[in-house]
Amino acid sequence: MFSKTFFSTDKKGIPSDPEKLDETLPVLKPDFGLESSLSMTWIGHATCFVNIESIHFVTDPIWSPRASPFKSVGPKRYRPPPCTIEELPVVHFAVISHNHRDHFDIPSIRNLAQRFPTLIWFVPKGLKRDIEPIVGINTVYEMTW
């Protein structure tokens, strides 16, 4: 019914000691004020904040603690995101590669859409009808990739 990894608690290689975890996988606050025409900040998994010539976009936004429609079941983050959606500079557009929960996080999508009312979404063919009710007035373009 569910894949083995859905309920897996295998954390091989992930230190259980919080100090060792901070040393091994530190979470650093991003510096969005860098004076560069090209920069990328990794938020976690497939989520990145990208700056190209002062145009900002995010990829596969997921800020939730779990890649799951449930709050207490499903794959959990090892580390928190390095910033909140509220701490992001203006985001002009977002790209979603596909509709798996570790790339299509409904609470994060909703929060981004509310924070940035002019945000434009680029989604794969067939996903527009699923995302439009979540993003409200944001523009959504379906792409073929």
From TrEMBL:
SUPFAM superfamilies: Metallo-hydrolase/oxidoreductase (SSF56281). Pfam families: Lactamase_B_2 (PF12706). One of its GO terms (cellular component) is cytoplasm. Gene3D superfamilies: Ribonuclease Z/Hydroxyacylglutathione hydrolase-like (3.60.15.10). Residues 57-132 form the Metallo-beta-lactamase domain. It comes from the Eukaryota. InterPro entries: Metallo-B-lactamas, RibonucZ/Hydroxyglut_hydro. PANTHER family: N-ACYL-PHOSPHATIDYLETHANOLAMINE-HYDROLYZING PHOSPHOLIPASE D (PTHR15032). This is Metallo-beta-lactamase domain-containing protein. It comes from Acrobeloides nanus. The lineage of its organism: Eukaryota, Metazoa, Ecdysozoa, Nematoda, Chromadorea.
